From TrEMBL, chain A:
Annotated organism of origin: Adlercreutzia equolifaciens subsp. celatus DSM 18785
PROSITE patterns: 4FE4S_FER_1, 4FE4S_FER_2
Lineage of producing organism: Bacteria, Bacillati, Actinomycetota, Coriobacteriia, Eggerthellales
PANTHER family: PROTEIN NRFC (PTHR43177), PROTEIN NRFC HOMOLOG (PTHR43177:SF3)
GO MF annotations, alphabetized: 4 iron, 4 sulfur cluster binding; metal ion binding
Domain 4Fe-4S ferredoxin-type residues, every copy: 3-31, 55-86, 88-118
Keyword check for Metal-binding: yes
The protein's name in its UniProt record: 4Fe-4S ferredoxin
Entries under CDD domains matching the protein: PsrB (cd10551)
Keywords per UniProt: 4Fe-4S, Iron, Iron-sulfur, Metal-binding
From TrEMBL, chain C:
Species classification: Bacteria, Bacillati, Actinomycetota, Coriobacteriia, Eggerthellales
Family from the record: Belongs to the NrfD family.
Main subcellular localisation: membrane
Originating species: Adlercreutzia equolifaciens subsp. celatus DSM 18785
Protein name: Polysulfide reductase
Any matching Pfam family: NrfD
Coiled-coil regions, chain positions: none
Amino acid sequence: MRYGMVIDLKRCSGCKTCSVVCKVANNIPNDIIWNRVLTEGGNAPDTAGGTWDNPEMQHWPVACQHCENPACTKVCPVGATWKDEQTGIVRQDYDKCIGCRMCLAACPYTGVRSFNWEEPAYYADFALGDADAAKHEKHTVEKCIFCTQRVARGEQPACVADCIGRARHFGDLDDPNSEVSKLLASREYTQLHAEFGTKPSVYYLV
Amino acid sequence: AGFAALTPKTASAQSDEKICTTYCNACMGCPLEAVVRDGNVVLTRAKEIEGAPIDQKRMCARGASIPTLIVQEKRIQYPMKRAEGTERGAGQWERISWDEAIDTICTKIKEYQAEFGSGSVCSFTYGTTEPRNMYNLNRLENVAQFSHQNRTTDFALTQGTMYTAGGFYYQGGVDMDLVSQMSTFVVWGHNPIVSWPNAWHYIADAIENNDCKLIVVDPNKNTIGQKADLFVSLQPGTDAALALGLAKIIEEEGKTDDAFMQQKSCAPFLVKESDGRFLRKSDLEEGVAADADDFAVWDEATNAMGYASTAQNPVLRKKGIEVAGQRCNTAYSLLIDRISEYPIEMVSEATTVPEETIRTFADLLCRPGMADIFQGYGIDHYGHGFNTIAAVSVLRIMRGMVPEPRMSYPLNSSGFDETETEHPAIVQSLGTFMFNDLLDTGKYTFPGVTAHMGEQVMELPDVTVEQPLKMLISFGANIVNSAPDRNKTIEAYKKFDFLVTANIEWCDTADISDIVLPAATIQEVGGPIGMNGCLVWADKAVEPKFEAKSDYDMANLIGRGLGLDEWFQEEFDEGMKHVVNTAMSAAMGIDADKLKEAGVMYVGAVPMPAYMTMTGKLQFYQENPGPIENYGQPMDPASIALPHWEPPMEAWPVTAGGFDANPLAEKYPLIVTAGTRRFRVHSYYGQNPLLREMEINEPCVRINPVDAEARGIEDGSYVRLFNDRGHAVAKATFSAGIRPGCLDIDRGWQRSQYLSGCNNDLTSKQIVDWTCPTYAYHDCLVEIEPWDGVVAESQE
Amino acid sequence: MNDAKGSAASHRGLTVGIIACAVVAVIGVALWMVQLSGGMIQTGMRNLDSWGFYITLFMFFVGLSAGGLIISSIPNAFGMKGFGDISRVAIWTSICCTCVAIGFVVVDLGGPLRLWELFVYSNLSSPLMWDIIVLSTYLILSIVYLWAYRREDAGKMSHTAIRVISIIALVVAVGVHTVTAWIFSLSAAHEFWHTALMGPWFVASALDCGTALVLIVVIALQKAGRLTIERSSMVNLAKMLAVFTCVDLYFFACDLLTSGFPGGEGANVVAMLVTGPLAPFFWTQIACMVLACVILFVPRLRTKGGVVLASALVIAGVFCKRCEILVGGFQIPNIEFADVANHMTITNWESGMSLFGYQGLVYWPTPLEFGVALGVVALGGFLLLLGLKYLPLHLTEKTA
Ligand SMILES: Nc1nc2c(c(=O)[nH]1)N[C@H]1C(S)=C(S)[C@@H](COP(=O)(O)OP(=O)(O)OC[C@H]3O[C@@H](n4cnc5c(=O)[nH]c(N)nc54)[C@H](O)[C@@H]3O)O[C@H]1N2
Ligand SMILES: Nc1nc2c(c(=O)[nH]1)N[C@H]1C(S)=C(S)[C@@H](COP(=O)(O)OP(=O)(O)OC[C@H]3O[C@@H](n4cnc5c(=O)[nH]c(N)nc54)[C@H](O)[C@@H]3O)O[C@H]1N2
Ligand code: SF4
Ligand code: SF4
Ligand code: SF4
Ligand code: SF4
Ligand code: SF4
Ligand SMILES: [Mo]
């Protein structure tokens, strides 16, 4: 089994609902965003690049790509980030991480990994999100974990369940009958930085 | 746990968790689930809506941020009063008890009403338009005989679509099932990706499954523009010319849906030359009962006059018909005359849209399959907003786009149980734009107008409304932030003797008040709402934080404090039952208890026997329109009988279409609009720190690099926008999608979030169309310059 | 021949130096505690430039240490004469540098208390793990090496044994540097780092700055009367330094040409160095190294002062290169679409727009980092001086 995500760029509206639900569901500390929705265009979110004759803007939701050949797990000296062979999910052990940031440097997808540069801070004085969401720790690295806690219960990841554009799909890439496999079979797609050979499990329908 | 196969279901409760039904009250009333742990909302998610024929599940980033909204720092925690001896707006506050707050408020109300009349106390109840609040607030306003403050916002779209098509389509959201079936969909002056976020996926469905062509009409290529097959950028405020020009092409090319117009519109109605009114059965026969009245048409089948309800083949294009001594023309022939004033060359010149694009647009509108136009507030917020909306409606009617008459399921938020027929009613409706004068002199004078009734020309005199104003109670809304010309708004508000603000969060309006009351959020109160075909009864998910109270309870407390106990007996749950339990609900087998039990019920759209226009037919022609909001203003109905185009009142920096440029443009050459922003609904949600992470954490203005570079402005630098009314400092962000000559500034940041000024310091309260007085937020000229960081003296 | 007075003065100088270093090191440790308790948010590092001054200095000191050892081993390994005296100092210097390098890894860690996990959960595919292994091996070997010399002095060890050890040391030293290079070059994520040349290039840098360091130390010791060395050995060393520096420059030139020539991302790397935000470092490096070569190749300039200057220039040049490598690696993001930046993601995030964080240098250390770094370096200085003072490094005693 290899869980993967398929994101339809034609349907993504750049609304960042996925970013917010991800933050809430996983009780992610302040100023850390696992799932960013980037704007290809100008220098700021929701601005177009190019010129007025042909302004260009496209939104790209980008989180950990759960690479089949992850650059991050190889370099982690203690196996605090590791690939769960059973599910294909690249996981993260906060209580093991020594904070060396090898993984940050190794991951080619700039910005999907975050280090807790200080004691995690939160806007609420109670834990948000899933009761079984892992506790965040100072000086450790974190990232999208494909909502392991939910997937283990047979639920969809938060970002998929609440995507307002119905642009996100999650499932077993090894199963030809899964929704994700079918989408990949029927639509044109691209991957982020396939040239790095990381074999991402996140696909973008174009 | 093993990794089971995934089900689409997401609802599962962990131990010690409670899952409540709730909704978000910001724009579309999305039905949500709140996960509650230890008395706190820890997660919100879109609720599955069972029984809906289409996927109705929805929640945007704002709804997802409710858990932190409830506990955000800026929540008002306790009743507060301005510290003794300090100036209004000085920011010195003292915590008081609810008893003291209600006591003070009621004493003041009684004093002012005794001395200056009941209307001297005014209330504003536009906070959130949900029955949860509105029901009892309306009741209070009526029973206590307050005058009612109207914000005069969004009226053009309301009135324009009401008069022409009998109501909102798509915006109320009951028509999303239709959207996904479209072959051509036009988004006109609207940015649903941001402003009605869940509408997008239906449009995306249409594109994906139906090869739907999406056309976006907007000066700027915004977030919906990026998805368009045809993006039509036009000179702001020239939409009516474009619409009427398109109508002319469609008529000339014989692509009108004549059968539709014959059956469903006023097109064949005979309009009397003498007074511009429809010729009715009651004009021709004695003793026609009102409900049996009919409209005269010319039936080609019999080559004689007939009536709309029975004629076989009512003629559309015929002029100079003599009937019973009256010279008449079909309404449609009048429209043809009107659109003949908009030849493509002229339209192209006025709008700057290339002729070729206009033709492509017309062709796409006439593509086989279903088509419709989703009109938005981008064209509402202009001096001539009503006319523009009506002009676009012409296309919908000519092409037979308007769906069958239907409406959203209505809840009763009138303030009274359906059986309570004997009750006091509001004395007076006041527009915010009247406040400055009412506070200065106790009266407001509407300018007179010249009215054309058929051949007759009449001078309608000035109308003066007298009403001393002393006290204002604002439940919700943040009018100091949202109303145009903020400096004028503040000037006026400071002249009130006493200001009370009830809100869930501290805001610009609270800043200048005397008493501030902490309102409870929907999750702390619960209650019913009806939106997008869904009825929801929200649970009270958590106890109100701090000392917050529901608006309902506040109305009860004030009502009782005024000695109006008999009207304010019912507690919240009781009151809310009247909201759901109407005759209509009963007929559909719905009642409050059932709804409460179900949480969410899908009711879909309610079919109507006829369009809810004045004639029951789609109307591009208005025979005698009155305003939906009547302040006693004089009106010139003939001027809006048929839509026409006039340039914006201020935002007209060009000479085109036969109109000279506004000379003000020499000083202020740029047009600034404030489109909706993703992470705030106006100012609401705008202080929620979770959402602040999602955007650049300060007010921004998008600008075309060409305009910026001409002024020495760098991407990411601070700029000052200014005109004679005021200024706003924002961060310039370059976007090639902004039309040169235009600026798009953020809307809804509180004044305290700006370095200097505020976006609504720039806008104007001026109203040009007295048939439909509405604020023209987008109709605004400014200049922009790099900001040197010095706070100008106009800033208090 | 130095008189006792001079020697006593230098002894007093050493003592003062040791105390000064100890004080600075203690302050450094205190600052490190501040960093750990208040969080690394106090450094200039952020998610998108996640290593900084510490790792720059780590690279730098690994270079110094490996270079020192290589220099001291080559004569032994190849049976060259006249370097014997230098070797002991060089080994000690490199031990100290290794400690400093390890110190920099430790102060860079978020969870130093979890260091033990490295041994328990060792993930052998991690270049960091390899580096830790070679560094430890190297450290142990250096100590053994030094001990072997001691034994030799006592006549208890044959010179052949020293030669064997020196050959092993040579291999490990080259290995240390190559592996350190791999920490960077095996990361395909950073265009600037991902080059096969990185290893050899690091070795070249190690050689030139290691030689330079040894030269400086030797000349200083000689000045202090703690060591005598034949002029010819020094000239040889100086010439070697010049050659190493040229090789280093040559590798750099090869790499830049290979990166830049095809255009694309690589061209951005070249632009970043030559005209972009890293240009000051790049041109300083080039200027230092070229000037050093001129001094070292022109016999007239090859005076003691000249050699010291040239050595210092080489070290400065290599330091600049370390900065270029580290910051340069982060300077060009792979995903450069706009998003909001915050104080966790980008050092200069004030604009709120991430792409603007990339204007200018993405990273610059904070005073705290300078402080901690100074502390770590002082710790090294402390060890070095302590060694010079108390360890039988075979200095004046033997030549006396
Ligand atoms: N996220 C979010 N959603 C909201 C709100 C919010 O504040 N935030 N507010 C809610 C409310 S109350 C309202 S009224 C709606 C408003 O939402 P919309 O109907 O989408 O209106 P605007 O965003 O004001 O303007 C829409 C577009 O009109 C364009 N426009 C400006 N001038 C012209 C013109 O002359 N011609 C044409 N064709 N287009 C023009 C603007 O560039 C803009 O892209 O959104 C609702 N939803
Ligand atoms: N420049 C410019 N200005 C504009 C526009 C524009 O296009 N350009 N658009 C205009 C439009 S379309 C509109 S509709 C107006 C909107 O103007 P407002 O309605 O004044 O704006 P909001 O900021 O949405 O105010 C809602 C307030 O209600 C509070 N609230 C939420 N729930 C409750 C509750 O249960 N009880 C109470 N008591 N308070 C509650 C929120 O905290 C918030 O302060 O803004 C207008 N302003
Ligand atoms: S929620 Fe869906 S539509 Fe919105 S940004 Fe995320 S992926 Fe795109
Ligand atoms: S995207 Fe980066 S962090 Fe995620 S698995 Fe791939 S290499 Fe690792
Ligand atoms: S920072 Fe943590 S997860 Fe990343 S490589 Fe180091 S130990 Fe592994
Ligand atoms: S899968 Fe879960 S953790 Fe990953 S981005 Fe989506 S919500 Fe966040
Ligand atoms: S802000 Fe509007 S669209 Fe978003 S959750 Fe609330 S009601 Fe729904
Ligand atoms: Mo509105």
